[in-house]
Structures are given as structure tokens and as C-alpha cells.
Amino acid sequence: MNASTATDTLGTALVTGATSGIGRAAALRLAGDGWEVVVHGRNAGRGAEVVAAIEAEGGRARFVRADLSNLEDLNHLAEEVGEVDVLVNNAGASWFGPTTDLDSPGFDSLFEGNVRSAYFLVAALVPAMAKKGRGSIINMASMAGIVGLAGGAAYGATKAAMASMTRSWAAEFSPRGVRVNAVAPGPVYSTPEQTVRIDGLGKTTLLGRGAQPDEIAEVIAFLASDKASYMTGSVVVVDGGRTAI
């Protein structure tokens, strides 16, 4: 890890849902590039572990707890974080099953956690980015928002919404210096409970396997960096070729 010293950071990056999976990997990778990372999650113990892992490698990080499905918690997070240079909207949940098995509260919960939370975090944090004339927003879309997956109607709709908001936010904020892009991963081994599903989906990709969280984090870090300075409004597909066929 090539983290900058405590007095020499690139700026502040907020990663939501950073206590496991892709979010954790992204937090570690961004810290390694020299960003001071705000680790968000709902579990303080796991948040402390991520912060400790970053600090052990010479990076800077702090944890802020919030339930992003609750707008009061979301506003508290925005206030605690203050101004950021990078916002990674990674937090969310997945649900797969027959359409008839998802009730109205479950449907609403998916959209609150996956879509509404990102929308209102952008509303709270991006004005300060635009005022400075710089910033990067990276939204987590998915191949599920591009191709039809049996049992994935509601989840896929939330991810298609993330891709759509990415394009609209780019049109709205990029003229003021804020780049907005999305990453659309394929199957990723994020939690042990999903291993069987990821094994199956991985076999449908051109590479014949699921991804590791670090592989997605590399793309997030690229989009956050000046190396992607001419990219905005893009949905970068990282799915082992699944949507190419």
C-alpha cells in the first residue's frame, strides 16, 4: 500500500457500505492511493476493523455509523462527514426470488437502501463539490440492471436506476467540475452466504468465474483518480464479459 503521510492526503473519500465486500475493498484501495477514507456502515465492530486495517498500512480513516434507509441517519452522516472529494455510493442490498414472494415493504426497502440513499447523499454532498469545482461520484450499478435475471426484477430495477441517475447527475454536475460515473459489476464473491449463487452466475461469464472484491475496487480507484479526468457519465462494466453476450 502506498498511502500518503497523515499530512499529505489527496482529499476525503466517503465509501458507503464499506465494512464488507466491494465497499471494504474500495476503502482499503482508496486509502492506499492516499485518500483519507470515511468508512460507513451499520456495524461499529466491523467498521473499526476496516479503519484499523487502513491505519496499519499507514493510511487515514474514520468510521461513521448510519442506517441509510433512514433519512435522519443519512442526514447525520452527511453532517458528520462534511465536505468530501470522492463519494462512492456502494451501500445497498440484494434480493432474488419469485416476483410473487417480494412484498411491498421488501420492495420499498430495496429502493430505499439502493436508490433513495444515493440520491439524497448526492443532494447533501455534491453542492460543496460543485462550489469547489471538482469532485468524483462513483455509483454502484450492476449487470443485473443491464440483463434480465430470473428473480432479479426488483433488484435489477434499483441498479438500472443507479445507471440512469449517473447519466443525469453527470449532465447536471459535470459542467461545474464534478465527474459522475458508475461501475456495473458482474457476480462478485462479497459474502460467504452468496458463494453458491456467485459460482453459478460466474459460469455464465466469458471468463467462467465470479470476481473478487479487489478486482472491482481497482476500477473504483481508477474512476476516483485523475487518471479518469476525462470520464463522466460512463457506466463501466466489470462483469467478465457477461453482458457482451
Supply the key terms.
single chain, 245 residues, alpha/beta, Rossmann fold, seven-stranded parallel beta sheet, 7 helices, 7 strands, 44% helix, 16% strand, disordered N terminus
The CATH architecture term is 3-Layer(aba) Sandwich
Number of helices: 7
Strand order in the sheet with the most strands:
3-2-1-4-5-6-7
User: Which superfamily, in CATH terms, is the homologous superfamily?
Assistant: NAD(P)-binding Rossmann-like Domain
Strand portion, in percent?
15-25%
What is the helix fraction of residues, given as a range? Answer: 40-55%
Number of individual domains:
1
Number of strand elements: 7
N-to-C order of helices and strands: EHEHEHEHEHEHHE
Q: Structural class given helices, strands, pairing?
A: alpha/beta
Main sheet attributes: strand count, strand direction, barrel closure: 7 strands, parallel
The CATH topology corresponds to Rossmann fold
* CATH level-1 class: Alpha Beta
Intertermini distance = 36 Å
Overall outline: globular
Mean pLDDT: 95
- Over the alpha carbons, how many angstroms does the gyration radius reach? 17 Å
Spans of at least 5 consecutive residues with low confidence: 1-6
Give a verbal description of the structure.
It is built from 7 helices and 7 strands, in the order E-H-E-H-E-H-E-H-E-H-E-H-H-E. By secondary structure, it is of the alpha/beta class. It has a single domain, classed as NAD(P)-binding Rossmann-like Domain (Rossmann fold). The protein has a 7-stranded parallel β-sheet with strand order 3-2-1-4-5-6-7, sandwiched between helices. Helix 1 (21-33) crosses helix 7 (213-224), helix 3 runs parallel beside helix 4 and helix 4 (104-132) packs parallel to helix 5. Mean pLDDT is 95; it is low at 1-6.
